C-alpha cells in the first residue's frame, strides 16, 4: 500500500521538543537499565515540580521556540528572568547546592587513595620511630646499669636482654608489619619510577 504524497509539514507540539531533550539528557547522564520506568519517574518528577513551584519545562520550551517563529515574544517582559522572585532564588540555591555536592563527592573519590596511602605511610613511620626510640632507651639503660654495677656481662646475657618478646601471631603485629612492608614497597616503587623518569629525560 502506497502512502499518498503530502506537502504538509508536521510540527512537534509546542514545548514537546524541550521535554524530550531533557529526558534524553537525563537518560544519557544516568544510563538506566529500564528506560521506560526511568522516563515515567522523570515525567512524574516534572509534574510534581510544576504542581509545587509552577515551573513547566514544556511552557518554557514553547516560549523559547516562539523566539524563532515570533520575535515579538522578546519584547514582552515576563518574570522568567526575574532574580527577585523568591521561587527562582530557591530553585537556583537548590541547583547550586546539588552541583557543589556532586563536585565535592567527585573530589573525595579522587583524593581517597592518595590520602589513605599517606595515612598508612605516616602510621608506619610512627611505628618505626616508636620502636627505634624503645631500642635507644633500652641501650641507654643497659649502659647506665653497666656503669653503676661495674660488672661485665657476658655476650649471651646481653643478647638475651636485647631480645624483644613479640607475639608474631598477634593480628595487631601482623597489621603493623603489613603497613610497614606496604610503605617500604611504595617507597621503592616511587624511587624506581622517579629514577626511570630522570633517565628518560636524559
From TrEMBL:
Q: Which Gene3D superfamilies match?
A: 1.20.5.190, cAMP-dependent protein kinase regulatory subunit, dimerization-anchoring domain
Read off the PROSITE patterns from this record: IQ
Q: Compositional bias (Acidic residues) spans?
A: 157-171
Give the RIIa domain ranges. 14-51
Q: Say which domain of life the source belongs to.
A: Eukaryota
Chain intervals with Basic and acidic residues compositional bias: 143-156, 192-202
Which residues does the annotated region (Disordered) include? 143-173, 183-202
A GO molecular function assigned to this protein is: calmodulin binding
| Name used for this protein in its record | Putative sperm surface protein Sp17-like
Upper lineage is: Eukaryota, Metazoa, Echinodermata, Eleutherozoa, Echinozoa
Amino acid at each position: 500500500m502506497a502512502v499518498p504524497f503530502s506537502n504538509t509539514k508536521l510540527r512537534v507540539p509546542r514545548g514537546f521538543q524541550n521535554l524530550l531533550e531533557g529526558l534524553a539528557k537525563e537518560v544519557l547522564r544516568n544510563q538506566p537499565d529500564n528506560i521506560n520506568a526511568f522516563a515515567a519517574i522523570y515525567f512524574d518528577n516534572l509534574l510534581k515540580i510544576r504542581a509545587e513551584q509552577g515551573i513547566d519545562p514544556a511552557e518554557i520550551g514553547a516560549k523559547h521556540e516562539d523566539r524563532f517563529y515570533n520575535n515579538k515574544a522578546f519584547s514582552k517582559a515576563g518574570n522568567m528572568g526575574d532574580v527577585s522572585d523568591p521561587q527562582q532564588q530557591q530553585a537556583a540555591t537548590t541547583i547550586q547546592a546539588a552541583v557543589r555536592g556532586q563536585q565535592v563527592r567527585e573530589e573525595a573519590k579522587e583524593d581517597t587513595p592518595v590520602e589513605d596511602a599517606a595515612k598508612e605511610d605516616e602510621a608506619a613511620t610512627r611505628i618505626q620511630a616508636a620502636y627505634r626510640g624503645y631500642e635507644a632507651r633500652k641501650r641507654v639503660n643497659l649502659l647506665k646499669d653497666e656503669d653503676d654495677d661495674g660488672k661485665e656481662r657476658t655476650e649471651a646475657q646481653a643478647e638475651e636482654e636485647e631480645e624483644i618478646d613479640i607475639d608474631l601471631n598477634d593480628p595487631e603485629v601482623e597489621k603493623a608489619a603489613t603497613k610497614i612492608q606496604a610503605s617500604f614497597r611504595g617507597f621503592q616503587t616511587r624511587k624506581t619510577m622517579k629514577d626511570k623518569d630522570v633517565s628518560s629525560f636524559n
